[in-house]
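Objective 1.3, modelling of assemblies. Example input:
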Amino acid sequence: AQSVTQLGSHVSVSEGALVLLRCNYSSSVPPYLFWYVQYPNQGLQLLLKYTSAATLVKGINGFEAEFKKSETSFHLTKPSAHMSDAAEYFCAVSEVGGATNKLIFGTGTLLAVQP
Amino acid sequence: GAVVSQHPSRVICKSGTSVKIECRSLDFQATTMFWYRQFPKQSLMLMATSNEGSKATYEQGVEKDKFLINHASLTLSTLTVTSAHPEDSSFYICSARDLGLAGYNEQFFGPGTRLTVL
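Predicted structure (tokens):
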């Protein structure tokens, strides 16, 4: 069975500081991995996705993530935090070629950006 | 592109009534749509997978007679909460899988519907 673990339910950074949100996955088959962002009372917006091409994936709003198979990780980073980055971030895994196409979500990390 | 809408965005109803939530893919065809439920400060819980022209597949623990799902076309799925009770109050989010991107399992999410049952 697939699963996703997001370490740190709350992360607080200063504006301009590095953002690092951690995601580790468990999957018996090669996975697809996703990072989504959710602003209050809104749906989810895709930040980036890993689909077995380049291991370093660049997304929107200056975010990127690196797929590390040896560490089963897909951590999300941004070099310099902006106030507008404050939101909830979800990591998700999906099974490559899976019949159900389900996304399994982590529990989320709430990012706070301090001025 | 890849826009998913939900209607209504917020609904307040009395206990015992039924509420219908619509999920539409506006600029793409979606053979598969998903319905999620999200409690405050929690992650998304998949309720069911909706396939166009066939019965929905419900996750374990989700009452199919209470949460009726219909996926009548490639652009519309509906979730009806029957005989709603206060414990059904939640944020309901749908997503749709783009037929054209079938190889990547990517889902596009709607903005969500806030249901409050009094």
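The mean pLDDT of chain A is 90.
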